[in-house]
Amino acid sequence: MELYLDLHSQPCRSVYLLAKRTGIPFTFKSVDLSAGQQFGEDFGKVSVVRKVPAMKDGDFILTESVAILQYMVEKFPQLVPGHWYPSDLQRRALVNEFLSWQHTALRAHGSKVFWFRAVVPVVTGVAVPKEKMDSALEDLKQTMDLFQSKFLKDSSFIAGEEVSLADLVAIVEIMQPVGTGLDVFEGQPALSAWRERVKKVIGEELFDEAHQSIMNVDCLAKTFQDNGMLEFLKPRINKMFT
C-alpha cells in the first residue's frame, strides 16, 4: 500500500496517524504541496483530482481521506482495533454523522483561518482585511462551539468512551489554525481535556511528529520563495478578495 501525503494537510495527517498508530504497513510517498508536486505528471497518474491524500493498493486507488480511513480499517481488522470504526450500529452512525458534517464546517472554517493567517499574507505581502479576518474567526468560533455542544457533549470521545475515526479527523482539523498561533483551546477546559485524551491514545511522540510541519508554518514564506510558488498562487488568492 502506498500513501501519497503532505503532512501540512489535515486529511493526510489523519490517514498517516491511523496507519502509524495501528501498524498498517505502507510506503510513504511524499507530495510537496508547497512545491506544486500535486500538479506533476507522476502524481497525475495516481490521482486525476490532484489532491492529497491518495492511496494506491496494487491497482486500486482512492483519493478521499474518509474513504481511505474506512478502507484501511476494513482491510486490516487484525491490526485496527474495533473502536476506531465501531461495529455497533448507533456508535458507527455517530462516527459517520461527524465525518459527514466536518467537511463543510470544521474543515472549511479551520482551513480558511489557516489560509488567512499563514498563507495569504505570505503570498500577497499584506494582511487579510480586518472585516474578512473577523468574519472567518467568528465562523470558526461558532463551529467549535457547535462541535462541543453537538458532537463531544459530555462524553470522553465523539462516539462514546472510546476513540474513533471521528476524533482523529476532528483533532487534525482543529490543529490547523493552532499552527498559525491561534490557541482555540484557551479557556476551553473540556475541549483541552478531550485533546489530551486523543493525544494519549495516539501517542504524544507520534502526534507531535505528525504535526511538526504545521507547527512550523513560519517557514512557508521561504519555502514558497525558494520553489517559485509565490507567483503561481498570487492570482488564485487574489480571486478570494475580488
Strand percentage lies at 5-15%
The rough form would be described as globular
Mean pLDDT, to the nearest integer, reads 93
* Secondary structure: number of strands: 4
Radius of gyration: 18 Å
User: Into which percent range does the helicity of residues fall?
Assistant: 55-70%
What is the makeup of the main sheet? 4 strands, mixed
Give the end-to-end Cα distance, rounded to a whole number of Å. 43 Å
Quaternary structure of the protein: single chain
Structural class estimated from helices and strands:
alpha+beta
Strand numbers in spatial order across the main sheet:
2-1-3-4
What can you tell me about this protein's structure?
The chain has helices at 10-22, 41-46, 65-75, 89-102, 106-124, 130-152, 165-178, 189-202, 204-210, 220-227, 229-238, and strands spanning 2-5, 27-30, 54-57, 60-62. Helix 5 (106-124) packs parallel to helix 7 and helix 5 crosses helix 11. It has a four-stranded mixed β-sheet. The radius of gyration is 18 Å and the shape is globular. The chain has 242 residues and is of the alpha+beta class. The longest helix has 23 residues, at 130-152.
